[in-house]
Amino acid sequence: MSRSGVAVADESLAAFNELKLGKKFKFVVFSLNDKKTQIIVNETSSDQSYEKFLESLPENDCRYAVYDFDYELPGGEGKRSKIVFYTWSPDTAPVRSKMVYASSKDALRRALNGVASDIQGTDFSEVSYETVLEKISGGGAH
To answer: Does the keyword Transmembrane apply (predicted)?
Structure first.
């Protein structure tokens, strides 16, 4: 349970484990249920396109997401994969929504073992592929 009294639904943990262990999904998007009492699965996808992932983030509302981020190491040293946790809280989202998502984040984040990086996004430039790649690869992937 989070400070806001929001619980993480079992389906949310199951979907995360399918992404992490089963490699069934490329990303999972989470939202709060209508009563704002549980963090539920909003969408899952095995689509490899990062653009498809970004399209799943609403322009005017908050979400959480995990994305199995693949990238090349510089100098052809091979590929890496990291599970990235996103807190999507656009400036245009309702204030109440931003507050509930902010106070509920820790419950979900603590439940997801194996996340390598956290990304906070308030607009699409902060969650662009290049921005996230730079953050998770230590800035040396150009």
So the answer is: no
